[in-house]
Amino acid sequence: MPNAAPLPRPLALLRDRRDAAAPVLPSMVVAAVAMAVGVGSDRVLGPGAGVWLIAAVLLLLIWRWLLATAHTALAAWALVAAIAAAAGGWGDLCWSRFGHHELGRYASYGVEPVAIEGLVVEGPVLRPAGPPSPYRAIPENDLSTLTVAVSRLRDGAGWVDASGLCSLTIDGSVESIAAGDRLRVFAQLRRPLPPMNPGQQDTAGEARGHRRLCLLRAESAECVSVLGSGSLFGVQRTVEAARGWLSGAVRQSLSGQEAELTAAMLFGQLEGLSDETTDAFRRVGLMHVLVVSGLHTGIVASVVLLGLRLGLARRAWSIALVMAVVAAYAVVAGGRPPVVRAAVFAELFCVAALLGRPLLSWSALGAAALIVMVINPSELFRVGTQLSFLTAAVLLAFGQAIVRREPIDPLDRLLASVRPWPVRGVHAIGRWGWRLLAATLVVQMIAAPLVLSSFHLVSPAALPLTLLAMPLVVACIGGGLGLVLLGPLGLGAPLAWLCDHAAWTLLWATGVAQRTPGSHFWSPAPYGWWIAGFYGLVALAYFGRRSPGLVRLTVWGAPVWLAAAFLPAAWQETLRDETEVAFLSVGHGACVVVRPPGGGVLMYDAGALSSPEGAAEAIAAYLWSRGERRIDVLVLSHADIDHFNAVPELAERFSIGATLVSSVMFPRWDDPTDASAPVELRRLLKSRGVPIRTVELGEQIKIGPLTGELLHPTALGVIDTDNANSVVLGLEYGGARVLLTGDLEGAGMRQVVAQEKYDCTVVMTPHHGSPRSDPPGFCAWCSPEVAVVSGSLADPIDEVSASYHAGGAEVLSTAQVGAALFYLGSEDRLGVRQETFLPTPLAR
């Protein structure tokens, strides 16, 4: 028999401790790492698919020549480089290459009416409206969301060819539509907005990663007509019908949130859970329980195998049937990356069992990563995918360490076999609990930087909750699966009881944990370079654990690196000698954050007309990007919802030192039956111990070297609207002035401009640039150099822009340039350095 070829050098760098001839990082892992490097390099460098593919061909030729000349090690590196180059080309094709008739090419950031025809790729998902909230200016409706592959676009009286995937959102329920149907839709078309503020997540980039460049919104189901029904035997239609039937079987046997929780854990249908429930799981670190992943797939496979091995089928047939069930379950659960990873792992495990060979766990993980990136290279940049594979890798390494550290002693085995069964059971439970607790702790510690960078959340409650949650999750998934399989046979009653009580207990425990002080807290994230260094240190600790020098480097480097997590931000804060004033982009609303030298935060207004949660996310992202954990002074200009409805969410994430309001902001008496937004806000602030102070004309505000003066209203206010009584605040630092005006208009505006002129460098245009705020007269009174309009793309600002331009001011709209940042005390123009978050303004 010919001698086996030597292992290529990249595949033989590290060897399995159980078998010196087996590599710890097999070819699948090396290929997956090479592919990730290639995809990541393309996203950073972007040379184009042609360059990548030419490089891949050249590298393959070099690889072949090196093999022919017996340069095995160099050949292996050339092959790895070729894989990376090919992956870069594939990533560029998926990210940058779209058809000439792509509907997204017609879309702008403003809303435009459109009529399209297309095929339903993914059937509608109904998202029920949340409960009424006094903080929401526009009440929520039930929404149905589906994915459409566009085929035609109406151009005037005729139709032209079009292409592309897009997400269609319809107000109301559209149960009559299914995958495969051909639709005609009259809707509003727009492009998804890019990140508009520092620290904000790139939802437009995520949509583009799924090849969706535009959004459609239909006002009602009447705007959508079905031109033709799809085949009853279409793949996607069959999958959705199966998912609906299976989840319906669960919901028939259970009720309320218990049914929705079980359906979410079994099939990934989170839309039925209330926002409060989902938020509770996220805060206590159990969100992975709701997202179908390896845990759920493993439980399903184990339940099916256990049932079959009780005598229903032989071993080989049982394994083959488990493989079929796992594949079907992955498809029904939506085929998300965590499910694909778990399914590939389970399938390879079954194949190894059928062949009587041990499973190479790292090879299975590498194969799953390759499949996920081949399907969609952009999954590499999704935090859910990153956490899924990181957790799997940590658990694999932890499992191997446990096996190595717990050798089986024949004497211990003999003693254990003669112990009474209750003692053996207690020992088994204790051993299982210790391993689960240790594994959870290790996973939490290693995943913490990645979780913190994306969610800014730390959940100490996840550690003890895991011990309680795991058996409950097994009971819910196993019971739910049993309901589906045995319910039609009339054997579902005990399983329904088990599933219902397990889900109730899990909901109860999660709710109690969320309300417990210290169960979770919010925090800024370390810098990206620190996170990369952290994972480099973790890899060094694992792969260099047998090298004394590397072990010492890890032991000494870990505490130093951990201590350096937040030191750079603190050091930079001490060196900052400018006051940063940020007009954040929150749509039709307002939020201005002021950060003087030496620390401290003054916030002027915090709200938006569209979504209080969206406004809070944008504001919190900015504060965390600046390393802030506290709002020292919150100034609320007046009682309009779009100026304060983000405060409740912000109060959950940041401590607030004091709130300053006018005398007319809140009612003068506390009516217990009053559930209006201002009253509810006052109750919330009082329940959190936040002092509320009334301010008036002439009062001074001081944070460090920054001084502020109240220019309006008086203690009595004016007899007019809430807008007319807006708090007007002038800030001064380093010879520059900033004027914040709320929605000032009417009698309040006349009272302000009657005062002595207040020349300023930057002004917030009153009432989002409304012509009712006397732009010519107000501009003449304050003579600004820059006027900032805080509004949305739909707000008409041409008239106000003309007035301020005529007065010699530059006009910036946060809807077009994103966050407008000004640094007072700079040596630039008039003592102010100016930046906009978006380098190129968005077209209206």
UniProtKB/TrEMBL annotation:
Residues 588-767 form the Metallo-beta-lactamase domain. Pfam families: Competence, DUF4131, Lactamase_B. The chain crosses the membrane at residues 20-39, 51-68, 74-95, 289-310, 316-335, 342-375, 387-403, 434-455, 461-486, 525-543, 550-571. It is found in: Cell membrane. Keywords: Cell membrane, Membrane, Transmembrane, Transmembrane helix. The keyword tRNA processing does not apply. Its main location: membrane. Coiled coil: none annotated. It is a multi-pass membrane protein. GO terms for cellular component: plasma membrane. The keyword ATP-binding does not apply. NCBIfam families: ComEC_N-term. PANTHER family: DNA INTERNALIZATION/COMPETENCE PROTEIN COMEC/REC2, RECOMBINATION PROTEIN 2. This is ComEC family competence protein. It comes from Pirellulimonas nuda.
